[in-house]
């Protein structure tokens, strides 16, 4: 299956079931938690490679790992996670205003309310991969866009802010506000997002210290141009 293919409903359930299974570490992310995490990575201030963020799907310290049946199953689950991430990336690239965070719903006194807390926990964990890099938006004129994420996702908030998240109706409104703010948060980072570090590709093989110098002098490289270049 190509990585640019969005998850089908069956595949979504497959990944969901695996994350909730006994073979996944106890602290593994749930689907809404994972979706928030991937969103922060996708729209944040700098690219983060999968080999850094993937291990934290299984726990906050990145040291736990699932008990896969075999290499084929591991490949399958990782593929589903990468496609889940690509859905986020593609949506923000082509239609950011249509992005829908994966919030859970619950019934409270006959009302269907959204619960965005786990999604925000994930977003917060995504930000903590590059904590200093997010300072620019917090300190900007649009810093208030981040307030719902802070209230619902931060490890600690002020005591006088607790009623905003403990009341299900107020927490529901924060979730709605957050969803409305995400396109603007993405827009803030687009011109500021750092490019991936380029890898230098040599046109010719590297000359070893004890090889003949390519200039044709007949001397060892370390005694000729290597000395001029400060080779050790």
Outline the secondary-structure elements.
Layout (H helix, E strand, L loop, with lengths): L8 H12 L10 H13 L6 H4 L17 H24 L9 E5 L2 E5 L1 H11 L7 H4 L8 H7 L8 H5 L1 H22 L35 H4 L4
Antiparallel strand pairs: 1-2
Helix pairs in contact: 2-4, 2-5, 5-7, 7-9
- The main sheet orders its strands as 1-2
Give the tally of structural domains. Answer: 2
Helix share, percent: 40-55%
Discrete helix count = 10
CATH level 3 topology of the largest domain: Four Helix Bundle (Hemerythrin (Met), subunit A)
Largest sheet: 2 strands, antiparallel
What is the architecture of the largest domain at the second tier of CATH?
A: Up-down Bundle
Q: List how many beta strands DSSP finds.
A: 2
| Order of helical and strand elements | HHHHEEHHHHHH
Write down the CATH class of the largest domain. Mainly Alpha
Distance between the termini: 48 Å
Give average pLDDT, whole number. 88
Structural class: mainly alpha
Uncertain stretches of 5 or more adjacent residues: 197-204
Tell me the β content: under 5%
Apparent shape:
globular
Radius of gyration (CA) equals 24 Å
Pfam families: SEC-C, UPF0149
InterPro entries: SEC_C_motif, YgfB-like, YgfB-like_sf
Region (Disordered): 205-232
Protein name: UPF0149 family protein
